[in-house]
Recover the amino acids of this structure.
């Protein structure tokens, strides 16, 4: 049995968009996420699923960490099945369903993007990684819009990657290489760069907004590089939910 929370703002319309919000490793999920305020403002629903316990007893998503070896859980199929159930039960859009996730949930966003799935139209990992095994063995079947927000001082999910598995999460690619795959997959031809100050000037973070556009399918790639940013969802530095929804809303039908 998969447990989940559903958040439907007052006044939401039948057939409204649906956003999955996936928690980080060991965190069973919280009803309050970085997307709630945006959901309230823009009238979309949020599904917050809880990961099953892995071999270490931690609620998580099976993305092939070394300590998850032998764990037989097909997470992408599970999320698609849950999405169909939630769409039907709560009268939400089958076409406008998206996924965001923090850390381990961000890895799930990448795994979903690389997989043969027809449910999630765009993904937005936050402090997420592309595992080396995904990068080396999988090729995404189609372009998909992708938006990563990542701190350069993240010591859990290192900006420069960890191909030697020093952190114990398994080998993973650097953020620029991980994003470069999607720029190529989506055949983006143009890049715009904007440097802005963070909302909280006391912590010394600023944001470089990279936006890659011009692909034949319209699937864009955004990367927000949070200078000196730690492992977080950056709600003190940017309005994360608004930024992610501004990206997802480009793909509404």
């Amino acid at each position: 049995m998969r447990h989940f929370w559903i958040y439907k703002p007052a006044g939401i319309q039948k057939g409204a968009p649906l956003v999955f919000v996936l928690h980080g490793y060991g965190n069973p999920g919280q009803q309050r996420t970085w997307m709630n305020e945006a959901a309230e403002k823009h009238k979309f629903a949020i599904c917050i699923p809880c990961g099953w316990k892995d071999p270490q007893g931690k609620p998580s998503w099976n993305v092939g960490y070394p300590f998850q070896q032998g764990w037989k859980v097909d997470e992408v199929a599970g999320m698609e099945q849950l999405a169909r159930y939630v769409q039907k039960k709560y009268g939400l859009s089958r076409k406008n369903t998206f996924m965001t996730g923090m850390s381990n949930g961000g890895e799930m966003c990448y795994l979903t993007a690389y997989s043969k799935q027809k449910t999630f139209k765009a993904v937005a990992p936050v402090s997420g990684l592309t595992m080396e095994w995904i990068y080396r063995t999988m090729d995404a079947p189609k372009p998909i819009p992708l938006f990563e927000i990542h701190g350069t001082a993240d010591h859990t999910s290192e900006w420069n990657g960890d191909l030697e598995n020093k952190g114990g999460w398994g080998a993973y690619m650097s953020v620029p290489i991980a994003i470069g795959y999607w720029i190529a997959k989506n055949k983006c031809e143009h890049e715009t760069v904007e440097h802005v100050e963070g909302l909280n000037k006391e912590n010394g973070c600023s944001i470089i907004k990279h936006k890659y556009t011009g692909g034949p399918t319209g699937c864009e790639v955004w990367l927000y590089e949070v200078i000196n940013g730690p492992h977080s969802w950056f709600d003190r530095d940017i309005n994360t939910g608004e930024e992610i929804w501004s990206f997802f809303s480009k793909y509404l039908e």
Observations:
- The mean pLDDT is 96.
